[in-house]
Design goal:
By secondary structure, the protein is of the alpha/beta class. The protein has a single domain, classed as 3-Layer(aba) Sandwich (Rossmann fold). The protein has 8 helices and 5 strands, in the order H-E-H-E-H-H-E-H-E-H-H-E-H. It has a 5-stranded parallel beta sheet, sandwiched between helices. Helix 4 runs parallel beside helix 5. It starts with 17 loop residues before the first helix and ends with a helix. Bound molecules: 3'-phosphate-adenosine-5'-phosphate sulfate and adenosine-5'-diphosphate (ADP).
Length: 200
């Protein structure tokens, strides 16, 4: 980023702010950043959890990697620089959504700790929870609902996470999900973890 672009730009503080929105929503707003291998269960778990939260009248939005890559990030590839830019853009959007009073669920592979830390810095440490969907790669390969592991093993994809490209497990995630447990068990435990954090 060229800092000089911001020389003549001034932040405008608006009257309706996060504090007022949180008061009206009656729950806190922050980001749950789900990271894990392809096939680990990120989208399924976040979607299941969002359904439960909806029933409890929690205002949410789910930013899903595959979906975001059809619009906001459709110009980006899977090389390291583009993955970083993908994560940066999603972090900026998530930050706005937190300001809008939402509980934001982000599901991106986000394979590098450095990029996840950058997302945390953009969003703000107190509004960011790193959730590791910890599923062994052999199980992800067995699941392979989109045949992406198969394609990368056949050489049809050459930069697939976990095959040609690395996945760095989080150093110290805020929450660890055993991705081999049932969805029901995973989401009940997650709800319990979230409960006190959602209270205003
Ligand atoms: N080369 C390569 N590596 C990893 N993933 C690939 C690749 N090519 C396509 N896909 C599909 O893109 C989804 C991951 O996109 P993300 O935006 O989450 O990736 S990243 O955070 O920028 O690394 C990923 O979705 P999930 O399987 O849900 O994780 C795949 O469907
Ligand atoms: N806890 C779970 N137990 C069994 N299967 C699961 C579980 N979570 C996800 N799955 C299945 O695994 C596959 C990959 O899940 P998905 O949510 O698409 O992963 P990701 O978003 O990390 O790529 C899907 O077919 C999904 O139904």
């Amino acid at each position: 980023m060229n800092i000089s672009n911001l020389k003549n730009v001034f932040w405008h503080k608006h009257y309706i702010d996060k504090k007022l929105r949180i008061m009206r929503n009656q729950h806190n707003a922050f980001v749950l950043w789900f990271t894990g291998l392809s096939g680990s269960g990120k989208s399924t778990i976040a979607g299941f959890l969002e359904h439960l939260l909806y029933q409890k009248k929690i205002n949410t939005y789910l930013l899903d990697g595959d979906n975001i890559r059809t619009g906001l990030c459709k110009d980006l590839s899977f090389n390291i620089a583009d993955r970083q830019e993908n994560i940066r853009r999603v972090a900026e959007v998530a930050k706005l959504m937190v300001d809008a009073g939402l509980l934001v669920l982000v599901t991106l592979i986000s394979p590098y700790q450095k990029h996840r830390d950058q997302a945390k810095n953009i969003i703000g440490k107190k509004n960011f929870l790193e959730i590791f969907v910890n599923t062994p790669i052999n199980i992800c390969k067995e699941r392979d609902p989109k045949n992406l592991y198969l394609k990368s093993l056949k050489g049809e994809i050459n930069d697939f996470t976990g095959i040609q490209e690395e996945y760095e497990s989080p150093d110290s995630p805020d929450y660890n999900i055993d991705g081999t447990e049932s969805l029901d068990k995973i989401s009940k435990k997650l709800l319990k973890f979230l409960y006190k954090r959602l209270i205003t």
